[in-house]
Each structure stands twice: as C-alpha cells, then as structure tokens.
Design goal:
The protein is an alpha/beta fold. Helices cover 34% and strands 20% of the residues. The longest helix is centred in the N-terminal third of the chain and has 27 residues. Bound molecules: nicotinamide-adenine-dinucleotide (NAD) and ligand LD4LDG4J. Its EC number is 1.2.1.3, 1.2.1.94, 4.2.1.1.
Length: 810
C-alpha cells in the first residue's frame, strides 16, 4: 500500500468508528485548532515568511485572523447547524414531521494551494470537521516551509487518524486522486481543476472547485479616484498580486487613465514606500517558475509605473501597465502577480460587453458613485462574487458564500456554507400510520375528482402556524371523507414513531449558552435599571431585539369578560411529571432556571404536536410587591410559574421560533396563603445556593407533580398565542394560563425574593415584564367539563372556532 493509500484507509477506518459524528468531538477538534493558532502563531508566520515573504502581521491579518473567525463561528453555531431543520410543508404532508437532517459525507480530500496556504487549506478543513467528516489534507508542495509545518503541527492538535496530512507534489496528489473519497475540495488553477473533476468522476465523487481567473475591475469616471485607486492598489499588490480575487485588470475611459495611474502610484508609495523591495509589507513571488511566467507577460505592454525586478530574490515591483490591448499577452491568462494592466473602454456598455466576452470571473469589482452604474453591472454580468467600491473584503464576511461560477469554480464555502457544502442534506418525512383516508386521493383507481384534490393538496404549501394547521387538518379529515365517500379510517391516538431527543444532555435546550450570554449583557428589568446604566429596560428592549416590538407579545392582561369560550380546548396529558428526579437550578442572571429532563413531555390541550420539557422558572416581585407577568382583569398576582416546553422535533428556540406554536408555555399564578406551601421549601432553599449569576446546584428527589396539580385537575385554562417574555421575545409561544392558582405564604415569598442577585449584582427583585397590548388577538378559555365527541367532530369543532377567529393567527 502506498503512503497515500494508507492515509485514506486509516481516515476511512476512523470515520467508520463514528466518532467524527459526535457534535462534542467536532467542537473539541475545532477548539484544538483554535489552540494551534494561539500557541504556534510564530512558527506559522516564520514558515509563511520564508515561502512568500509575508510579514508576521500580514500572515495574521490575511490568513489566521479569518481562520479564528471561522472557528469561532463554527464552534458557536455547530449545534444549530447540525440540528434537524424543519421545512415548509404542502397540505398533503401537513400532519407529518418533515425536516432536513444534515449528515456527514464521509472522507473528504482537501487539496490546498500555496498563495494563502493556511487560509485555503484549513478553512475547508474547519467545514469538514464541523460537518462530521474525516479529511485527508494535502497542502500545496509549492509553499515548501508551510507544508512541512502543517505536516508537523496538525497531528499534534487534531485527531491524526481522522484528519491525516499527506504531503507531496503532483505524483502524490495523483495517487490520492486514485483513491475513493466522498468529496474532493480543491483550491488551485482551472487547468488542474479539470483533472480533479475527471478523477472524481470515476467514483461519482462530488467536488468543490475553488479556482481563479481574471477578475475585472471597472472604474467609472464618476467616482472619487483617489479612494478607488487606493483600494484597487491594496487589492492588487497584497501578497504581490498572488490572490485569487485580486483585481486582475482595470477597465476605464481613456480620459481618466492618467489620473488612475497617478493615484495608483501614490497609493503604492503610501503602502510600500519609494522602495517596495525593502518594505516588510511587500511580498515576493513564490518561486522562479512563477517569476518567469509573470515577467513573460510584460512582453508587448507599456510600463507606466514600477517594472523593477530581481529574479534571484523573486522580486517584482508593483507595476502598472497603460493602454493595454485585449490581445496583449498579459490579458491572455490570470496574472497572479503584481502587474496591473489598464484597458480603455468607451464607458459602462463596452465594459460590460468586454467582461461578458471572457470567462465568468471569481470576483468582479466596480467603482462608481452612481448606483445606476453599480446596478447595471450586477444585473448584466455574472461572477463568483461582486464588490462595489472595494476589493477583497467579501472574503472576510463569513455569512457570504465564497466560490466561483463557470470557469472560476463550483460550490462555495465559509461559515455555514462550508458546513452545508460538506454535508449531505438528507430529506426526512416521518408520517404516522393514521389519517389513511387522505391518501386515497393518490391511490388507484385514479379519477379526475381525486386528481383535483391532489392538485389542491400538493400544490399548496402552508406556513400558517399551528392554528391554521389544525384548521387545515380538520378540512383534510373532511376531504378524506368526501374523497373516500366511505367512513374514514379512525385516528390512532398514539404514533408509532418516536423521536430520539436532540441534544441529549443539554440542560437548557431552549436557548444556547452563547445566545444567553450575548443577550444578558444587553437587557435588564426595570428594577435593575438606573439612569447611568447602559443596559436596556423593558420599554427599550425593542430597540435591540425587534421582536420585542411585535404584535404578538407577552405577557398580557386577560379581561375575563372578553375571552371566548371554546369547547375544543381539551385537557392535557403530562408524561413523566410524577417521576422523582434530581434537577439542576442555575442563576441565569435575570432569573433562576430549573432544568427539566426531555423525558418530561406534554401532549393534548389542543397543542399541535408533542412537546418536550426544557425548564421552569418563576417571576416574582419584592418587598410585598406582586410579581406575576400575566394579570387578570388588571390584577397582578404575587408570583407566576412558567414551565417551558419545546415542540418536537425542534432542539432549540432558534429552530422553534418560526413556528407560532414552537414553544408551549404553561403558566400558573400564585395566590397568597396563610400557611406555607411545603412543596416549595426545597426550591426556596436551592435559590439560596445560587445567589450569584452562573452559580448552580442540584435539588435531589424532585417531583414536578408536587408543585403543580395533576393534569386531570387542569382542564380550565386560558389560551392565546404570544411570545417569550424575555429578549429576544420570540413570537413562537402557545400560552396556557391555568385557572387553578398555587398557594404560597408571605414568608415564602419574602424568602424567594431575597435570595438571588442579578448579573449586575443587585438584588433580583421585580423580575417581570409589564403587560403588552393584545393587538387584536383573541384569548380563549377552555370550557371545563365539555363533552368531547369523536375525533372527526373534535377537528371540525376546532377548525370552525379557529377559522372564524382570524385574530388568533395574526
Ligand atoms: N478560489 C480560491 O479560493 C482560490 C484560492 C487560492 C488560489 N486560487 C487559484 O489557484 C491558482 C494558483 O494556485 P496553483 O494552481 O498555482 O496552486 P498549486 O500549484 O499549489 O496547485 C494547487 C494544488 O493542486 C495540486 N496539483 C498541481 N498540479 C496537479 C496535477 N497535475 N494533478 C493533481 N494535482 C495537482 C498541487 O499539489 C496543489 O496541492 C490561481 O489560479 C488562483 O486564482 C483560487
Ligand atoms: C483583511 C481583510 C479585511 C480582508 C482579507 C482579504 C484577503 C487578502 C483575502 C485573501 C483571500 C484568499 C485566501 C484568496 C485566495 O487566493
């Protein structure tokens, strides 16, 4: 077996152990890479200095800074990226669970180039690791010193079986290409790109080709030429022009050519002094082969600035060429060096024509103060990326896909795009074995009538939220009956499909820790706020978190005479609530959260699905002041309990927030009692152990059913659609506020409100958001003890009530 074969076989074997799939393993590997860049920066920079004469700062600015950003993004978002992604459904699949499950591809081959050797090799590796793959890393042999450092360092930091480094040149790369991979990610020139694709075709291996080409730069006469030329000079001469997205040539009207030359010359002097050769920020051509290639391109062109060179030092000065003709040698291929040809065009029309005659470039630059010029350039051309009035910087925006089109490449990466590019986005549809009647429209014998129904159900998609879905389900049930013209198949109450809980072990799946930290630094309750504070109090939450200013905000005041009684709101089923468990309570800076296991589940209550518990928490006042969030007929209660549940299959609030009923919140109001409520004692004591932000403790032998009544006693409740009551105020909550109140003595209330401190260190009191406008929503009240008919009757009942109440689905 060759060295290359062995590396691939080892990576495959390691992949088959399944360890690369664990999100924890992926994050650990990414953190190890972070450590590498912190601990070995000087070794990395020294090698790049030897290869390309980049300064230490230059290497950080242009290579490792971007990698740091990519690593941070991947580490912070990985759970969200890797989680199942619910999708919009058509009417036919409305009652199914339909989602995309990203899964690793397998073993990825990463072939890097030499010009930004760390950026273009490690950035795809970050994507490969994040997506759960194994990866064989082949650095470019042209950057001799960097390839050696990569070979030495990577195995010290990351799993060397899963992510082996294979060094070598063309023969070694070709031997690698004879192996079977699940994806090949190649960065380099288009000629080799075609060879890569050919080799990949043998195994139908998908490829990402990050190629290059001639990236045009149009400078309109209507712009600030000093600024434009400074930015172009930076884009061109950074790394001595050896940048895939460097502006290859300038197109401008003849009338501005002289000024463009003068301004570019000024910028060269400003950046690299009168003598760029001795300037630490000016690089070198990678080797003498490329030096000769670039110098040959000068043939037949007029040098307007620069032109000095020294072969032994691989030095070519920043050079400008004037009056260059399209037939000139320098215009026949990508320059990839510090030569900047200027070609004359009569104006925008000719520039567009010229660009469109060539291959689609990796980048296209347009400098103009006139938006019409910029718009026409974007509308009438195509390129991998487009930048107006700047160069290169789009590479540093992790939320933009980076990649070529046509001859400049295929596929894209950076941030989440890297994750998606190196994942298989698997389509999943989980149907239950009930509602068979609806399917009759697609079963033979086919009839025009059934086709009519099929057209309606397949061609219409839904994004109506849970209320709309319930109504439509009711319609479907009716349709099923009509289509069948027989009695419909009875519902089976229990699904035989069970979801594996996502993010097992998360104590707080509802929001990620990073989200919580970022948010907590910016908002506060009214009681925390003082005039010299920079934190935002509730009236100013919306300035930072737009949803907080939405039309479906919570809490609300419930006016009991205005609620709509609805007999289609049935009781709930609590699952797991009587289990005795140990739970963790943590001071979250604004309140204390009591984590609940996902095995605690909630169904019924006219909720559109199955929900898993996440946590519960309380809202309270202080010093005898009431602290409930919801009020009834204007009355605020001493305290309020919220039990947060998240709908399956969502794993986080981020996933659930686009679903109007993605979260089910059960709310209980407390009323003052003369006697202590003994079941609250262990909770109160635990709050005393989590006084400060971030501290946590465990409550042993806890039973949720000790603090709330059993589901059989909770048939009376209010229902409305609203939001989370803390930022970002996501409008994804089906609220249930029970009529039954819970008892608490004034002694216990005092004890609760005096235990904890906010993240600011002040006493944690008055932790409630003021009530929000109803904004046309309808609040429903269940009809206690209403007799429920058959399933069909029930759906039709719900639909007729809910369809009539469009207020509910604003
Ligand atoms: N789109 C991008 O992100 C990006 C980034 C950097 C460079 N580039 C492009 O890359 C080009 C410069 O890089 P390069 O091609 O000179 O780099 P290079 O010579 O380092 O080649 C790239 C990789 O291809 C391998 N290789 C070379 N010849 C091969 C062959 N015959 N068979 C198999 N493998 C082979 C090399 O070993 C190397 O790992 C420019 O066109 C530039 O625009 C693109
Ligand atoms: C420092 C800033 C704002 C941007 C960096 C732009 C830059 C030089 C990107 C290089 C991108 C790259 C790896 C190109 C490939 O050849």
């Amino acid at each position: 077996m060759s060295r290359e074969q062995q590396a691939v076989a080892r990576a495959r074997k390691a992949f088959e152990t399944g360890r690369s799939k664990s999100v924890e393993h992926r994050i650990r590997q990414l953190k190890n890479l972070q450590r590498l860049f912190t601990e070995k920066q000087s070794v990395i920079s020294a090698a790049v200095k030897k290869d390309l004469n980049k300064s230490e700062v230059g290497t950080q600015l242009y290579e490792t800074l971007g990698l740091e950003g990519e690593l941070n993004t991947a580490i912070n978002h990985l759970k969200e990226w890797a989680a199942p992604r619910p999708v919009e459904k058509n009417l036919l699949t409305i009652s199914d669970t339909v989602y995309i499950k990203p899964e690793p591809l397998g073993v990825v081959l990463i072939i890097g180039a030499w010009n930004y050797p760390w950026a273009v090799t490690i950035q795809p590796l970050i994507g490969a690791i994040a997506a759960g793959n194994a990866a064989v890393i082949k650095p470019s042999e042209v950057c001799v010193h960097t390839a050696k450092v990569m070979e030495d360092l990577l195995p010290l930091y990351i799993d060397k079986e899963l992510y082996p480094v294979v060094t070598g040149g063309v023969p070694e790369t070709q031997e690698l290409l004879r192996q079977r991979f699940d994806h090949i990610f190649y960065t380099g020139n288009s000629v080799v790109g075609k060879l890569i694709m050919e080799a990949a075709a043998k195994n139908l291996t998908p490829v990402t080709l990050e190629l290059g080409g001639k990236s045009p730069c149009y400078i309109d006469k209507n712009c600030d030429l000093t600024i434009a030329c400074r930015r172009v000079a930076w884009g061109k001469y950074t790394n001595c022009g050896q940048t895939c997205i460097a502006p290859d040539y300038i197109l401008c009207e003849p009338s501005i050519q002289d000024r463009v030359i003068e301004e570019v010359k000024k910028a060269i002097k400003e950046f690299y002094t009168d003598n760029p050769k001795t300037c630490p920020d000016y690089g070198r051509i990678i080797n003498q082969r490329h030096f000769k290639r670039i110098m040959n391109m000068l043939e037949g062109s007029t040098v307007a600035a620069g032109g000095d060179n020294e072969e032994s030092d691989c030095y070519i000065a920043p050079t400008v060429l004037r009056d260059v003709k399209p037939e000139a040698k320098v215009m026949q291929e990508e320059i990839f060096g510090p030569l900047l040809p200027i070609l004359s065009v009569s104006g925008l029309d000719e520039a567009i024509k010229f660009i469109n005659k060539g291959e689609k470039p990796l980048a296209l630059y347009c400098f103009s103060s006139d938006n019409k010029v910029i718009n026409r350039m974007t509308d009438e051309t195509s390129s991998g990326g487009f930048l107006a009035n700047d160069c290169l910087v789009h590479f540093s925006v992790g939320s933009l896909p980076f990649g070529g089109v046509g001859n400049s490449g295929m596929g894209c990466y950076h941030g989440k795009y890297s994750f998606d590019q190196l994942s298989h986005l698997r389509s999943c549809l989980i149907k239950k074995l009930n509602m068979e009647g609806v399917n009759s429209m697609r079963y033979p014998p086919h009839t025009p009538k059934k086709l009519g129904w099929a057209r309606f159900f397949i061609l219409n998609s839904v994004d109506l939220g849970w209320v709309g879905r319930m109504a439509l389900l009711a319609v479907m049930a009716v349709v099923a009956a009509v289509v069948l013209q027989t009695t419909s198949v009875p519902f089976k109450e229990k699904s035989n499909v069970h979801f594996k809980p996502f993010h097992q072990g998360d104590s707080e799946p509802i929001r990620s820790a990073s989200h919580r930290t970022a948010v907590s630094a910016q908002w506060c309750y009214q009681s925390q706020y003082s005039c010299d504070d920079t934190c935002r109090d509730p009236i100013r939450w919306a300035a930072q978190f737009p949803s907080c200013g939405g039309l479906r905000q919570s809490p609300i005041n419930i006016v009991s005479t205005k609620v709509h009684v609805n007999s289609a709101l049935p009781p709930f089923n609590f699952i797991g609530h009587t289990n005795t468990i140990n739970i963790t309570v943590e001071n979250k800076g604004h309140s204390a959260h009591f984590a609940l296991p996902q095995s605690f589940r909630l169904t019924g209550g006219a909720l559109p699905g199955h929900y898993r518990a996440a946590q519960f928490h309380f809202h309270w006042g202080g010093n005898g002041r009431p602290g409930s969030e919801h009020t009834i007929d204007g009355e605020q209660f001493p305290m309020e309990l919220h039990i947060v549940h998240i709908k399956e299959p969502y794993g986080s609030l981020a996933e659930a927030e686009h679903d109007m009923a993605g979260i089910a919140l059960l709310a209980f109001l407390f009323e003052e009692s003369s006697d202590d409520n003994p079941h609250l004692d262990s909770l109160i004591a635990s709050l005393g152990r989590v006084k400060n932000n971030g501290s946590s403790t465990v409550i042993p032998n806890f039973r949720l059913s000790d603090i709330i009544p059993s589901d059989k006693d909770l048939f009376s409740y209010y229902r409305y659609v609203g939001s989370m009551t803390t930022p970002g105020c996501e409008q994804a909550v089906a609220w249930t506020l029970f009529h039954r109140t819970l008892p608490i003595s004034s002694r216990q209330l005092d004890a609760i409100t005096q235990q904890c401190r906010f993240w600011t260190g002040q006493p944690m009191t008055d932790i409630f958001r003021p009530t929000q406008p109803l904004d046309g929503r309808v609040v429903y009240r269940s009809k206690a003890g209403a007799a429920l008919g058959g399933v069909m009757h029930w759906w039709v009942g719900v639909s007729s009530v809910l369809l009539g109440r469009t207020g509910l689905i604003h």
